[in-house]
From TrEMBL:
This is Iron complex outermembrane receptor protein. Keywords: Cell outer membrane, Ion transport, Iron, Iron transport, Membrane, Receptor, Signal, TonB box, Transmembrane, Transmembrane beta strand, Transport. Pfam families: Plug, TonB_dep_Rec_b-barrel. It is a multi-pass membrane protein. InterPro entries: Beta-barrel_TonB (IPR000531), Beta-barrel_TonB_sf (IPR036942), Plug_dom (IPR012910), TonB-dep_rcpt-like (IPR039426), TonB_rcpt_CS (IPR010917). Residues 239-702 form the TonB-dependent receptor-like beta-barrel domain. GO terms for cellular component: cell outer membrane. It comes from Nitrospirillum amazonense.
Amino acid sequence: MMRVEKSRGLKSALLGMSALSLLGLATVAQAAAADDNSDKLDEIIVSAERRPALEREVPIAVTSISGEKLDVLNSSGMDIRFLAARTPSLQAESSFGRTYPRFYIRGLGNADFDPNASQPVSVVYDDVAMENPMLKAFPVFDVGAVEVLRGPQGTLFGKNTPAGVVKIDSAKPSDTFGGFADLTYGTYDTVNFTGAVGGPIVKNVLKYRASVNLQRRNDWVQNEDISTKNDTDFEGYRDLAGRFQLEYTPNENLDVLLNVHGRQLDGSARLFRANIIQKGTNDLVPGFDIEKANQDGANPQKLNSFGSNLHIVYDAGPVTVTSVSGYERANVFSRGDIDGGVPSDVPFSVETGGYNSPRELSQEVRFASNDLGPWLLQGGLYYFNSYLAGKDYDYITATGAIDDQVRHKDRSETDGVFGSVKYKVTDALTLGGGVRYSHDNKSVESIRDFGYTGPIYLRTSVNGGNASWDVSADYAINSDVNAFVRVATGYLAPSIQDRITFANATSTAKAETTISYEAGVKSSLFDKRASLNLTGYYYDTSDMQLTAVGGASNTARLLNADHAIGYGVELEIEAKPVEHMLVTAGGSYNHTEIQDPNVSVATCGGGCTVTNALNAQGNALLNGNPLPEAPKWILNATFRYGVPVGLDGEVFFYTDWAYRGEDNFFLYTAKEFTGKAFLDGGIRVGYKNDAGYEVAAFVRNVLDQVRVIGAIDFNNLTGMVNEPRIIGVQAKYSF
């Protein structure tokens, strides 16, 4: 993504850009920024259609986050979940902590906690789709932009995108030497350091960019259990990631970009806290202290990952050929005291842990037309292969012995072919459409070495194919206002759940399909001093894949519901009402509903107040329930005002706020497991100048609100809470 002040001829220039140009957008953005008028908004350019285009002319509901806003949201050292509620209809959460984010767009997501879970929101990092949730956790640092694409994106992005895409693009090498160093320090010895340097090795032929990110925090939750002291304190981490990019451009037609990256995390797994919810309410118990816990178990977590991708872009005249090869792997160990307490506080004590090693290989070859007048054509082939080996344990807390052991080997393979076309019917009207055929094969070997009813070996496989499509129309009402309509389908491949800790069979779910209808208006107003985007949507998901998580048996089971529907409205506003002031506001109303009179799940293992209708077996009937982690309301806003100081300096004030309404943690409804509304805000005050120096003081979670944002329901009222208030200072130097 980039922002540019729209000039004469920009529109036609963008239409002629090839994929080769996309890799060099940062240079264009820097040149355009030099001519920026401070009292006007910049046009936004996105790559939501796999080629650069003005955001206002793209018939997709897309929000981009970049620049200062992205830096501010990421300043307190939080992992990728900092994106939650920062764009309309986007939610993110985790019961694993920093190693396993779960994304939801317009209510569609997957609350499954197992390593092989399929998610309907794809994370595409530098054009490589990350399938495994543990790979989706790679930190967001030194990036050009984050784009959130809402609605099915199967035609161009393919795998597991019926809800949408979180698209992250690293800052690319430049022919100009430069970089930055950005350091923050805050409460609990929180450190967040990001640095980057890059430039030419051989002018106009070979260039590089090296980036590093260190996030760390001391253990800040004291364990008050004095019986074992397995872990004296919790919630600390040391998270180090790096990226090196080398770009080779021997001539104007060929560009080769190599990206190598890795991560090492040593920290604490998600902290579960027993009996912190008042029975019959969703309030915290009186006297709850966020800095204290009482556990007899251990909570370590470690992750090591490595990845690389190779982009080759060749402009052959009438067509540009792009090849994207990706390889990602990780080794993850996590162990958590999931009962959240000591034996005197819970019905029974249990810890779970495991080792998991996901591996993913992907290859895409894409063809895009050049200079075909009113026609824009794209097409290509896609291949994906993954392997996941894992070993999971349950521990007897009193002795530390392993009570059971389950091993699994998961394999997945996807083949796809796709094509899309856009045709400019008139100067005002552009029509578009596309189709992708995908075929998936998945297999799982599940081995229980001991535990439950004894050893067992199971092999399960599923396969399926689907043709996803989309059609759209974009109409320029005038030079500043565009209206669009879009109909698109999405596909989630059949899934397997291999959790056999307390079962003698795996569960499967058949393929899920979605059809989505949306219409919207995107506008630039008041001589480019304001913009307004408004989208309304409706979707219907058939054979909705659901995961019954938790319950009395603390397991996970796949099932299909006949339908799930969703509808809502999304609004985004950006304005410069006066010079040096920038105001943004966004929000969404999302209604979701499961429609199946027969589907049901087990409820909590005791202690919670179920409000759901029950069947004769005592299971909760899901018909009419909202989807989990799907708040009706998401709102966000930012305000920035700067005061010039001297010839080249500025004192600035920046504040950002995000509101998430009530949501359900599980498929069934219970008073205790309804998440309270949460308002999260930040304030930043500082000074910067044209010489590249910047200093600031900041506060995250200004209101110091503490909310239960997730729960474990199998034996007591165990909850997880949000990040604490962080107060800190920041220093940055750019050169």
